[in-house]
């Protein structure tokens, strides 16, 4: 009975038929066996594996322990930047933006964006009176755009005190930063920061809470703020209730920190919520990539050969966008499943070594480093356009390009034309950083409403339930994921069908949802490892019983095993 209950519990949560089958098999063999010494030893052994398996998989229900290949940002204890010596001595009072005079323009765009962000506006209406974030001091490091401005004002409307910096040196919209600063929120961001200024801005926001208090919540995009606080200001984490992380790269950092034992507070992985990754990463990039390329180059995409490195959610959106504009799209991938998906969508899948001499436009989407290197640059066509839509600038070897180019000319902001020794030219957009934010204004407001609604819910969850989460990386429950989607349907005129009682019972799910299981993102690899451990345990038990009774384990009796052999066991 215990075996059955354990198997049923795990089956309902993870849908593991392997687990169900194995555990029922143990029940059958245990039931058919007689009470011999071997039987009791086998029974005890099987119990050990059951308990071990149940414990491990109950942990899997709440945390994901996969590691990531990307490296953690390193912030030196004593920054070697001269900029620190001239500015860090006197912290800014409450903000630093490019031009506070742009605030009125920014406010007009904020008003328009609110109409396109129904999820955030619904949260203001639902929680504005109760203010669930009252007492929260949120340090946010996320692209300072108009859409982010709506997020910031939603957090403050729910009771939080907020300070802000941008997570990319080129992504800030100066009128958005000015509008938020004019609203009395400490913000340190402007378009075109240097690397030194970028770190300075993050540090200034940490010092800008009222009465000299420290942060107690982190809202991050890319992991820079999280890494800096962990490495340079660990004392700030003593009262910190948690982190919510926006993007794939930052999530990779969190899992790596957790694996290495460096993570000190609970974190919620917002990126892998379905209403974030399947919409922001895919549909957002599908629109904003083309916007960035067009604004930067005015090139006609139709008829060109476009090379997309990576076919994850971002790569899927970029590939679809380029094909929709009439380009012939080549995809490069390391993952056989993603490569097969690309092939089944009709894209040609090849290696970068082959594609580099064929492409007119190159887009990196992987979140990994060294995707386009010097070897690839040397073989590109004249005036090949190279850009990145992954979070950091490590996907393209910009350092090699700068070191080996004969000369470089700046065509306009974020558009540089490099002359190679071969006489050919390479056009690099946004210095290898996010092209959709460096050369355009990023994703549309509507799709960002989905991502940011998840962020607000994650902040509320962590703040309101401080004892619920141990140190680790967690996901928002599926019912909240579906609620985020539901909040955005009316804006699009969508009418949902409703399950009847008969249909609900037939499917075995509530009529109101959730309709997807918690493992909808298909993190089955880790669970399969525990399944295999359990199978090996079962094989071990049956191995003992088979050789002790000299028969296949079903239907034997203890009298059929020689006494001398049993006594040796």
TrEMBL record:
<keyword id="KW-0472">Membrane</keyword>
<keyword id="KW-0812">Transmembrane</keyword>
<keyword id="KW-1133">Transmembrane helix</keyword>
<dbReference type="Pfam" id="PF05221">
    <property type="entry name" value="AdoHcyase"/>
</dbReference>
<dbReference type="InterPro" id="IPR000043">
    <property type="entry name" value="Adenosylhomocysteinase-like"/>
</dbReference>
<protein>
    <recommendedName>
        <fullName>Adenosylhomocysteinase</fullName>
        <ecNumber>3.13.2.1</ecNumber>
    </recommendedName>
</protein>
<dbReference type="GO" id="GO:0004013">
    <property type="term" value="F:adenosylhomocysteinase activity"/>
</dbReference>
<keyword id="KW-0378">Hydrolase</keyword>
<dbReference type="GO" id="GO:0006730">
    <property type="term" value="P:one-carbon metabolic process"/>
</dbReference>
<dbReference type="InterPro" id="IPR042172">
    <property type="entry name" value="Adenosylhomocyst_ase-like_sf"/>
</dbReference>
<dbReference type="Pfam" id="PF00670">
    <property type="entry name" value="AdoHcyase_NAD"/>
</dbReference>
<keyword id="KW-0554">One-carbon metabolism</keyword>
<dbReference type="InterPro" id="IPR015878">
    <property type="entry name" value="Ado_hCys_hydrolase_NAD-bd"/>
</dbReference>
<dbReference type="GO" id="GO:0033353">
    <property type="term" value="P:S-adenosylmethionine cycle"/>
</dbReference>
<keyword id="KW-0520">NAD</keyword>
<comment type="subunit">
    <text>Homotetramer.</text>
</comment>
<dbReference type="InterPro" id="IPR020082">
    <property type="entry name" value="S-Ado-L-homoCys_hydrolase_CS"/>
</dbReference>
<dbReference type="InterPro" id="IPR036291">
    <property type="entry name" value="NAD(P)-bd_dom_sf"/>
</dbReference>
<comment type="function">
    <text>Adenosylhomocysteine is a competitive inhibitor of S-adenosyl-L-methionine-dependent methyl transferase reactions; therefore adenosylhomocysteinase may play a key role in the control of methylations via regulation of the intracellular concentration of adenosylhomocysteine.</text>
</comment>
<feature type="transmembrane region" description="Helical">
    <location>
        <begin position="6"/>
        <end position="28"/>
    </location>
</feature>
<dbReference type="GO" id="GO:0005829">
    <property type="term" value="C:cytosol"/>
</dbReference>
<comment type="pathway">
    <text>Amino-acid biosynthesis; L-homocysteine biosynthesis; L-homocysteine from S-adenosyl-L-homocysteine: step 1/1.</text>
</comment>
<comment type="similarity">
    <text>Belongs to the adenosylhomocysteinase family.</text>
</comment>
<feature type="domain" description="S-adenosyl-L-homocysteine hydrolase NAD binding">
    <location>
        <begin position="281"/>
        <end position="442"/>
    </location>
</feature>
């Amino acid at each position: 009975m215990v075996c059955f209950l354990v198997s049923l519990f795990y089956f309902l949560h993870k849908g593991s038929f392997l687990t169900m089958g194995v555990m029922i098999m143990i029940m059958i063999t245990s039931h058919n066996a007689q009470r011999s010494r071997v039987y009791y030893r086998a029974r005890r052994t099987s119990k050990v594996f059951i308990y071990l398996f149940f414990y491990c998989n109950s942990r899997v229900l709440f945390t994901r322990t996969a590691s990531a290949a990307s490296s953690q940002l390193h912030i030196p204890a004593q920054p070697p930047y001269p900029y620190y010596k001239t500015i860090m001595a006197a912290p800014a009072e409450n903000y630093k933006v490019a031009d506070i005079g742009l605030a009125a323009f920014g406010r007009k765009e904020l008003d328009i964006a609110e109409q396109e962000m129904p999820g955030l506006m619904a949260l203001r209406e639902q929680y504005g009176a109760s203010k669930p974030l009252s007492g929260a001091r949120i340090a946010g490091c996320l692209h300072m755009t108009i859409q982010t401005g709506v997020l910031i004002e939603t957090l403050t409307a729910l009771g939080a005190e907020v300070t802000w910096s941008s997570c990319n040196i080129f992504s800030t919209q100066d009128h958005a930063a000015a509008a938020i600063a004019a609203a009395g929120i400490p913000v340190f961001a402007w378009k075109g920061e240097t690397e030194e200024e970028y770190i300075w801005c993050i540090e200034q926001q940490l010092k800008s809470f009222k009465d000299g208090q420290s942060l107690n919540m982190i809202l991050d995009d890319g992991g820079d703020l999280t890494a800096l606080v962990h490495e340079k200001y660990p004392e700030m984490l003593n009262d910190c209730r948690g982190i919510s992380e926006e993007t794939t790269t930052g999530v990779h950092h969190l899992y790596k920190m957790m694996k290495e034992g460096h993570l000190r507070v609970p974190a919620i992985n917002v990126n892998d919520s379905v209403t974030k990754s399947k919409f922001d990463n895919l549909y957002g990039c599908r629109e904003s990539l083309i916007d960035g390329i067009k604004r930067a180059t005015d090139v006609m995409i139709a008829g060109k050969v476009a090379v997309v490195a990576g076919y994850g959610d971002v790569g899927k959106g970029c590939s679809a966008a380029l094909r929709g504009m009439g380009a012939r799209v080549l995809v490069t991938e390391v993952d056989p499943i993603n490569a097969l998906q690309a092939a089944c969508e009709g894209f040609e899948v090849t290696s970068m070594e082959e594609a580099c001499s064929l492409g007119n436009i190159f887009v990196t989407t992987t979140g990994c480093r060294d995707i386009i290197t010097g070897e690839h640059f040397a073989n590109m066509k004249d005036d090949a356009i190279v850009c990145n839509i992954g979070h950091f600038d490590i996907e393209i070897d910009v350092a090699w390009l700068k070191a080996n180019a004969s000369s470089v000319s700046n065509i306009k902001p974020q558009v540089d034309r490099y002359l190679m020794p071969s006489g050919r030219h390479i056009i690099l957009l946004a210095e290898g950083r996010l092209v959709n934010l460096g050369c355009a204004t990023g994703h549309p407001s509507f799709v960002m409403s989905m991502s940011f609604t998840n962020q607000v819910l994650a902040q509320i969850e962590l703040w309101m339930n401080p004892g619920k989460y141990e140190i680790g990386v967690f996901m928002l429950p599926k019912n909240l994921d579906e609620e985020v989607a539901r909040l955005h349907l009316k804006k699009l005129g969508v009418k949902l069908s409703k399950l009847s009682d008969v249909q609900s019972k037939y499917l075995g799910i509530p009529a109101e949802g959730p309709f997807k299981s918690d493992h909808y993102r298909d993190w089955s690899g880790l669970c399969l490892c525990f399944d295999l451990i359990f199978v090996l345990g079962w094989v071990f038990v049956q191995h003992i019983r088979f050789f002790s009774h000299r028969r296949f384990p079903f239907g034997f009796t203890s009298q059929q095993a020689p006494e001398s052999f049993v006594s040796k066991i």
